[in-house]
């Protein structure tokens, strides 16, 4: 199992070591958007590097969480607990949240 907090530190250290952005949060959001677009394109075109592109999205997101001071593991666990308690109904072909 991955220790997400350790991975956050490792991603951040790699960004520093390679001279990547560690201050401009808006720029990181733009990079995530670009990587997500590349991932969608890889999926659509059935490219062999789909997994690598998806990993890029995750790595940028993990790096952004460090810049924002967010423990991503805690936030993911909290969000999963919230999602697991939600109830949904299919209304006219659309899955709609009916209970929080």
Please describe what this structure looks like.
With 100 residues, the chain is mainly alpha-helical. The protein is built from four helices and two strands. The chain has a two-stranded antiparallel sheet.
Which key terms come to mind for this protein?
100 residues, mainly alpha, two-stranded antiparallel sheet, globular
Write the layout of secondary structure elements.
Elements: H1 4-18, H2 25-44, H3 50-67, H4 72-85, E1 87-91, E2 94-99
Antiparallel strand pairs: 1-2
Helix pairs in contact: 1-3, 2-3
What is the terminal separation in angstroms?
30 Å
Q: Which percent bin holds the helix content?
A: 55-70%
What spatial order of strands do you see in the largest sheet? 1-2
Number of DSSP helical runs: 4
Taking all Cα atoms into account, the compactness measure Rg is 17 Å
Shape estimate: globular
Strand content: 5-15%
Number of strands: 2
Q: pLDDT under 50 segments (min length 5)?
A: none
Summarize the structure.
The chain has about 100 residues and is mainly alpha-helical. It has four helices and two strands, in the order H-H-H-H-E-E. It is globular.
């Amino acid at each position: 199992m991955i220790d997400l907090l350790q991975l956050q530190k490792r991603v951040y250290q790699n960004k520093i070591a390679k001279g990547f952005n560690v201050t401009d949060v808006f720029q990181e959001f733009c990079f995530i958007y670009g990587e997500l677009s590349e991932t969608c394109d890889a999926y659509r075109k059935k490219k062999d590097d789909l997994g690598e592109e998806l990993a890029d999205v995750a790595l940028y997101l993990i790096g952004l969480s460090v810049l924002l001071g967010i423990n991503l593991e805690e936030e993911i666990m909290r969000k999963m607990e919230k999602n697991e308690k939600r109830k949904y109904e299919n209304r006219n072909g659309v899955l709609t949240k009916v209970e929080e």
